[in-house]
Design goal:
Distance between the termini: 52 Å
Domain CP-type G: 100-260
Number of domains: 3
Organism: candidate division LCP-89 bacterium B3_LCP
CATH topology of the largest domain: Rossmann fold
InterPro entries: G_CP_dom, P-loop_NTPase, Ribosome_biogen_GTPase_RsgA, RsgA_GTPase_dom
Helix content: 25-40%
Radius of gyration: 22 Å
Bound molecules: guanosine-5'-triphosphate, magnesium ion, zinc ion
Strand order of the largest sheet: 1-2-3-5-4
Subcellular location: Cytoplasm
Number of helices: 10
Shape: globular
Order of helices and strands: HEEEHEEEEEHEHEHEHEEHHHH
Keywords: Cytoplasm, GTP-binding, Hydrolase, Metal-binding, Nucleotide-binding, Ribosome biogenesis, RNA-binding, rRNA-binding, Zinc
CATH class of the largest domain: Alpha Beta
């Protein structure tokens, strides 16, 4: 497999030039499992490990390689094991706030062209959560599409209602209804999957992400949850990996996410609520927060019933959540940097005194 087929295009070439050294090889991270990596280069897939220097210098998990990353490696002894030296800049990424109290980003995957937000047509279906995922996808510079699975479990009019709910919230992404059982919708997905492009499946545990991959491969290659097993919250997929389909399209499977904290660093949440953004152009104040300002066009649209109330409230909620974390994040980065400078100057002093 050549690098181009793996998705290495002109953009990455430009961003590699300055980092490249003759003894290095270009590879892509194809699987990550608790600190262990599998990487693929022109010769095939091999295990890899971070150099000590790399692990030592990484200040946060964001700076560690994730599935989809392009990296520079060096062979260890033979060609069947590599050391990871550098990450080539990411063109796009999926990241969330680390679960719990940590104020840090956690990388999910990178260098993705299309992200499929997967929800199943049962109690998993939730437009507010969909909006949350959309923020994450658009922030990362990725095109979102929505897949509604398990359509075999509901009547067609219920499916139509669900689709209208998505539209009413102002979400204009492509929606693909799918049944892994009847096969309805798989052709539509196949048409979207392009050779040399990278796609990613994200969504709660148990919605059928891995089953879809098996459907596309035409064989039960990857482990899915046994039918009828309830045990909610148990994740079947545990590692993130990049799979190449028969037509050369790449697809990343991820474990279901229970918690999806939003931390938007440059306040791009507005971009995800297209209808609110469009209307805010008519607000009296340029910095209108759309909560109680006079002459707010967004509030007026909600009052007039032209803008969905629930979507508007979710917008405010996500914005507030994000601003809260963003503040702490900026503070933390400042402190980390100051500490880094302190260590650096101490080391220098010591060097001189030796
Ligand atoms: N009725 C029906 N069941 C499905 C469909 N797709 C998947 N399932 C079932 O849903 C269960 C969960 O599927 P998985 O593919 O393991 O779900 P997942 O999204 O990969 O879950 P995690 O790996 O835990 O994130 C399995 O028992 C599947 O057989 C579908 O279209 N219709
Ligand atoms: Mg899975
Ligand atoms: Zn306003």
């Amino acid at each position: 497999m050549n690098l181009k087929e793996l998705g290495f295009d002109g953009w990455f070439e430009n961003h590699t030039r300055e980092l490249f050294r003759p003894e290095m090889k270009i590879a892509r991270v194809t699987a990550v499992d608790r600190g262990r990596y599998m990487v693929t280069n022109e010769k095939g897939e091999i295990p890899a490990q971070l150099t000590g220097k790399f692990s030592y210098a990484a200040e946060s998990s964001e700076e560690l390689p994730c599935v989809g990353d392009w990296i520079l490696t060096q062979d260890f002894d033979s060609e069947d094991f590599a050391f990871i030296h550098k990450i080539i800049p990411r063109k796009s990424f999926l990241r969330r706030k680390s679960p719990g109290k940590d104020i840090e980003f956690q990388m999910i995957a990178s260098n993705i062209d299309i992200a499929f937000i997967v929800q199943s047509c049962d109690d998993n279906f939730n437009v507010r959560r969909m909006e949350r995922y959309l923020v994450m996808v658009k922030e990362g510079n990725i095109e979102p599409m929505i897949i509604l699975t398990k359509t075999d479990m509901i009547k067609i009019d219920i499916l139509e209602q669900m689709i209208s709910q998505v539209w009413n919230a102002g979400i204009s992404s492509k929606i693909i209804p799918l049944s892994n059982i009847s096969g309805d919708g798989t052709d539509q997905i196949r048409r979207v999957l392009k050779a040399g492009k990278t796609h990613c499946l994200i969504g709660s545990s148990g919605v059928g992400k891995t089953t879809l991959i098996n459907t596309l491969l035409g064989r039960p290659e990857y482990k899915t949850k046994p039918v009828g097993e309830t045990g909610k919250g148990k994740h079947t997929t545990v590692r993130r990996q990049l799979i190449t389909l028969g037509n050369g399209a790449m697809l990343i499977d991820t474990p279901g996410m229970r918690e999806l904290g939003i931390m938007s660093v440059d306040g791009r949440i507005d971009d995800c609520f297209a209808e609110i953004k469009r209307r805010s152009a008519k607000c009296r104040f340029d910095d209108c927060g759309h909560t109680n300002e006079p002459g707010c066009a967004v509030l007026k649209a909600v009052e007039d019933g032209e803008l969905e109330k629930e979507s508007y409230h979710n917008y405010l909620k996500l914005k507030k959540e994000s601003e809260f974390y963003e503040m702490s994040y900026t503070e933390k980065r400042k402190k980390d940097k100051a500490f880094g400078r302190f260590i650096h100057s101490e080391m220098k002093k010591r060097g001189k005194n030796r």
